[in-house]
Design brief:
The protein is built from 25 helices and 8 strands. By secondary structure, it is of the alpha+beta class. The strands form 2 sheets. Strands 3-4-5-6-7-8 form a 6-stranded antiparallel sheet, sandwiched between helices. Helix 8 runs parallel beside helix 12.
Length: 505
């Protein structure tokens, strides 16, 4: 017996499961009638009637059938669900899809790109990211497509429909990304970059290429984000991703944080011994201590892996370790750690890949990357992925100071900025080219694939209020507990999913 919103309910989980199973056997008209009745009861604002609507709404999201998706579409168009709750319903529907037929995927794609959805920024973000992830699971990842969906009843989605991702979905995301860059809309740039990454399809490389090579202009942070968002591609096509990432790493003219991110992704592709040996030798002559430190820590920790699932990478790292530069690098430089945790009784092995991007203007890192992979009785799964980054740590502190100082300090700061002896005006008087700093940008993406059905989670957990302040608090806590994270033995069962863009006001 459980207490739920003041009501004593027996075996609530079992009853909710039964409700989901009933909904899966209902057609569109039956669901539509039930929706109408329960929503009308909900408007009477009596607790048990409101709870009935909530349970039905959540069960519809969990059902994963075509009729249930059409009902969700109706709710969105009639504004029966809005905001964060609507985002949670969409994200759960994407992960719970049971029969992703052509018609189902077409309906979801139409829903995600609908004008009404696009006008609601956070809901649009969730719909786009959820659909991109669903497309990867259905069309791109052969194992998930075969194991999770009824391929024997409907045919192999992976073999038959992979080209729809290449010819329709990715071109749409690429077009939206191009328009966002033209409009200098950083939030949309982040969202559609992440959406392209979620597909895990090799064609995203042709979209990112002109920006990474400098043929088309974007900020350094946005280029960094493109490398970070290759995380799904690394999982789906490791050899293809490895070639591109290695070229980025080798380019010493590239920004150090982008090269460090490339090393982080490169180590997830299980590079061969010959490649790691070349990288180890390069630590003696690399122009960037940040990159050399990241390579050294990654190879040294990879060499300590002992589990059979990681033995190939471990052997390659052991062959490269003697070639590393013996110079020690302090904590202010970028680091990468590969560790493992084993539960022998359950035949489970977990691999943690942790990295942080050292900052050029602060001892506090400007980025943190983490992934958790599991091997459970021979079955591989990615459990969690986290990326938290800011474009400039010093600017982040400045924004925080500006938002928290009192009125008197603000007046003083404003008068100071308007002074005739400001650095900008002095530079103009002396005819010095004044290099304007890029705008402050930040990105926080936190995914736990086990918790998509938790309505406190989803591919997009939304943050409202003073966004800059909240993002700083989250990022600061991550950095503060970095050492604890390195020593973690288990993964949390309750995780929130965030995809968050931070801009200076």
């Amino acid at each position: 017996r459980q207490l739920f919103n003041g009501l004593v309910v027996e075996r609530i989980e079992t009853k909710f499961t039964i409700l989901c199973n009933l909904i899966r056997n209902m057609n569109y008209k039956e669901l539509q009638e039930a929706s109408r009745e329960l929503y009308n009861l909900k408007n009477k604002e009596q607790r048990h009637q409101t709870d009935a609507w909530k349970a039905y709404r959540d069960a519809i999201a969990q059902a994963g059938t075509g009729p249930a998706l059409l009902i969700i579409k109706d709710w969105l168009q009639s504004l029966k669900i809005r905001g964060e709750r609507a985002a949670a319903v969409i994200s759960t529907a994407a992960y719970s899809a049971r029969t992703p037929t052509d018609e189902y995927m077409r309906t979801f794609y139409t829903l995600a790109t609908d004008d009404k959805i696009e006008n609601e920024q956070y809901l649009n973000d969730t719909a786009i990211l959820s659909f991109a992830e669903l497309a990867r699971r259905v069309y791109v990842n052969k194992d998930i497509s075969h194991n999770q969906y009824p391929v024997h009843a409907f045919g192999k989605f992976y073999n038959q429909h992979n080209e729809v991702v290449e010819n329709e979905y990715i071109p749409y995301f690429a077009k939206q990304l191009k328009e966002a860059i033209h409009d200098a809309d950083s939030h949309k740039i982040h969202v559609y970059t992440r959406a392209l990454g979620n597909t895990g399809h090799p064609k995203i490389l042709s979209v990112f290429e002109p920006y990474l090579e400098g043929d088309k202009q974007v900020t350094q942070f946005q280029r960094l984000l493109m490398v970070v968002c290759m995380d799904r591609l690394v999982y789906e096509e490791p050899k293809t991703a490895r070639s591109v990432l290695y070229k980025i790493y080798q380019n010493e003219g590239e920004a150090s944080e982008i090269r460090v991110a490339a090393v982080y992704q490169l180590m997830r592709t299980d590079p061969p011994a010959s490649m790691l040996q070349r990288m180890a030798e390069a630590t003696h002559t690399d122009s960037s201590n940040q990159v050399a430190s990241a390579v050294k820590s990654a190879i040294q920790t990879a060499a300590k892996l002992r589990q059979p699932a990681h033995i190939e990478l471990a052997n390659s790292a052991r062959a490269a370790a003697p070639l590393l530069d013996p110079q020690p690098y302090g904590v202010q430089y970028s680091k990468q750690y590969l560790t493992e945790y084993v539960v022998k009784e359950m035949n489970h092995a977990y691999k943690h890949h942790i990295g942080y991007l050292g900052s050029e203007d602060s001892i506090i890192p400007q980025g943190f990357l983490y992934s958790l992979r599991a091997h459970m009785g021979g079955v591989r799964r990615q459990y969690m992925h986290l990326a938290a980054m800011v474009s400039n740590v010093e600017d982040l502190f400045q924004v925080l100071d500006d938002q928290t100082e009192d009125d008197e300090s603000q007046k003083y700061s404003g008068a100071k900025q308007q002074s005739q002896w400001s650095s900008e005006k002095i530079a103009k008087l002396l005819n010095i080219d004044y290099e304007e700093r890029e705008q402050l940008e930040g990105f926080l993406h936190f995914v736990d694939v086990q918790e998509f059905s938790d309505f406190l989670a989803g591919p997009l957990r939304l943050l409202f209020g003073t966004r800059v302040f909240l993002a700083f608090i989250i990022f600061g806590l991550i950095i503060k507990h970095l050492e604890k994270i390195f020593n973690v033995g288990n993964h949390s069962g309750k995780l929130y999913v965030i995809n968050y863009s931070l801009l200076s006001p």
